[in-house]
Amino acid sequence: MSVTTISPQQLHDKLTAGTPVELIDVRTPAEFGEVHVSFARNLPLTELEPAQFTGRHVSEPLYVICRSGSRASQACQKLTAAGVANVVNVEGGTQAWEQAGLPVKRGQKSISLERQVRIAAGTLVATFGVLAVLVHPYFALGAAAVGGGLVFAGVTDTCGMALMLARMPWNQAPKTCSAANSPSGGAPKCCG
């Protein structure tokens, strides 16, 4: 399925020309908190439900961005397959936006999901390798399974380990107060 794309500069030009722009960032809340396009709204890929966009105006594109474009492309495909029209992937993601010198908001530094995958995969392969030498050769099958998963991720551009890590607590947004937490349903009350 082909995904429509736009360059970061073209999207920025639309915004500065006064064109309404709806941009969702499908990275984890931790990645979003570290650096994001100033007008983007965070909606992690793991929580993306196409039904959230059924009532929007089809004439206005829904722009999707991630770190480098891969997760945004997956989100665009998911939305398009569910019947959401006029979905556009921002080419190169937040990295390309930043490299173009366009404005971003910065927050607390975090480890990107891609680095987390490399750390987890490397740790698993090293652990299975040591266990294969010290305990039993069958532990080498664990290292082979991780390697096979990485090959699959490279070929399909879909990583099961990344999807699993994206759901970990350190990659989630902190719980915030909302009107629902207020006894009167009005102004938010501090959650403590």
Order of helices and strands: EHEHEEEHEHEHHH
Using DSSP, what is the number of strands? 7
- Helix coverage percent: 40-55%
Helix/strand class? alpha/beta
Q: What percentage of the residues does DSSP assign to strands (E)? A: 5-15%
Instruction: Let me know the average pLDDT.
Output: 85
Low-confidence stretches: 176-192
CATH C-level category of the largest domain? Alpha Beta
Shape: elongated
Largest beta sheet, briefly?
A: 5 strands, parallel
In the CATH hierarchy, the third-tier topology of the largest domain is known as Oxidized Rhodanese, domain 1
**Count of separate structural domains:** 2
Q: Which quaternary structure do these chains form?
A: single chain
Distance between the termini: 47 Å
- CATH homologous superfamily of the largest domain? Rhodanese-like domain
Topology at a glance:
Layout: E1 4-6, H1 8-16, E2 22-25, H2 29-34, E3 35-37, E4 41-42, E5 62-65, H3 70-81, E6 87-90, H4 93-99, E7 104-106, H5 113-134, H6 140-156, H7 160-166
Parallel strand pairs: 1-6, 2-4, 2-5, 5-6
Antiparallel strand pairs: 3-7
Helix pairs in contact: 5-6, 5-7
What does this protein structure show overall?
- The protein is an alpha/beta fold.
- The chain folds into 2 domains: 4-106, Rhodanese-like domain (Oxidized Rhodanese, domain 1, 3-Layer(aba) Sandwich); 113-171.
- It is 42% helix and 12% strand.
- It is built from 7 helices and 7 strands; from the N terminus they run E-H-E-H-E-E-E-H-E-H-E-H-H-H.
- The protein has helices at residues 8-16, 29-34, 70-81, 93-99, 113-134, 140-156, 160-166, and strands at residues 4-6, 22-25, 35-37, 41-42, 62-65, 87-90, 104-106.
- It has a 5-stranded parallel sheet. Strands 3-7 form a two-stranded antiparallel ribbon.
- The longest helix has 22 residues, at 113-134.
- The protein is elongated and about 65 Å long.
- The protein starts with a strand and ends in a 26-residue tail after the last helix.
